[in-house]
Amino acid sequence: MIYFDHSATTPIHPDVLKKIHEVNRDFFANPSSIYKTGRKSRLLVEKARTQVANAIGASSEQIYFSSGGTEANNHVLWQIIKQEKKHVIISEIEHPAVSKVLKEIETYGIEVSTISVNDQGVVKIEELIDLIKDETTLVSVMMANNEIGAIQPIKKIKQILKKYEIPLHTDAVQALGKIKVDVKELDVDYLSLSAHKFYGPKGIGALYVKDKDDLGSLIIGGNQESGVRGGTENISGIIGMGLAAELVTKNQDKWIKNLKELEGYFLEKVEHHLPHAIHHKTDNLPGLISISFPGKKSNILMAKLDRANIAVSNGPACSSGNIQPSSVLKAIGLSDDVNLSTLRISFGKNNTIEEVDYLIKTLKEIV
Length: 367
Ligand SMILES: Cc1ncc(COP(=O)(O)O)c(C=O)c1O
What we know:
Elements: E1 2-3, H1 14-26, H2 36-55, E2 63-66, H3 69-77, E3 87-91, H4 96-106, E4 111-115, H5 125-131, E5 136-140, H6 154-164, E6 168-171, H7 183-186, E7 190-194, E8 205-209, H8 235-273, E9 278-279, E10 288-292, H9 298-307, E11 310-311, H10 327-331, H11 336-339, E12 342-346, H12 353-366
Parallel strand pairs: 1-11, 3-4, 3-5, 5-6, 6-7
Antiparallel strand pairs: 2-8, 7-8, 9-10, 10-12
Bound molecules: pyridoxal-5'-phosphate.
The site of pyridoxal-5'-phosphate (PLP) has 14 residues, from helix 3.
């Protein structure tokens, strides 16, 4: 299988895979246990916390492990119902792990406002300023979009919010490993991560919290994660995430260079061989391409590519198989026809020029 769907998930890095196996075999003791093997598990968990913290310029006590990006987002967002202020602002292209949560939270009397995006998928800052009111308790804008790769001006948004003392959450699940994520520079209050998007295991993520006192619990139980996230730690997942975070930090420049080269090569070939294709150009994540083939249905294109052993997506992975027009593509102004003919191609660190050639050749035959 030639895999071009790295925004959905990435293959686990071989070093991470090896580590996970070793940990499951050798360090099964509960990190809360006080005997030697338990203490060893604890040490490994804390090392991973530091590795994740280092990858985003945080300190280790600001990192809380979760079951993934969805839980990290939920953790922050569900705190809103305990706040005195009852208004929250999000962008119109958030992942369902933010937008659907807020639909639910609305039923608790929370008012939700939405900032729209321009045709490049970037939030309209002037709208944000208009939406802010005394009652605003949180703003949540993703760092980079999972369908079109649009990168949001998080630092600028925070500068505005600072004047009003409104905290900012950003879903950086798609960002780490593809663009610089530095919590100090961004100055965000909360940031969500997911290991499986940067060659780590699935079912493990983390939430960065600038100031721990600001955080309540979502998953209530034991005293793990400094009392804010109950449940025995997923040790192998945590350690796998830590190593993946370290590897991504070390190799980021090299991996990004490869993604950019593949993207440039692919788009050049598209121009020559597939002149009717429409590339939705944004200031995008490297290696993530949103491209439409007017007159062709994306689900049919995907099925034909699958038959040729090529994996791509036609929208958010979580709703693949779903052939409704994408709300993100709608938000950037695409008609339903173009919307439904759009593929998302997302390259990864191991993809090659030869694989891109095969993709172009196959797309040309199909289209
Ligand atoms: C932007 C974004 N946020 C959140 C998630 C959910 O992360 P997880 O799969 O770790 O729950 C995804 C996964 O597709 C995503 O792309």
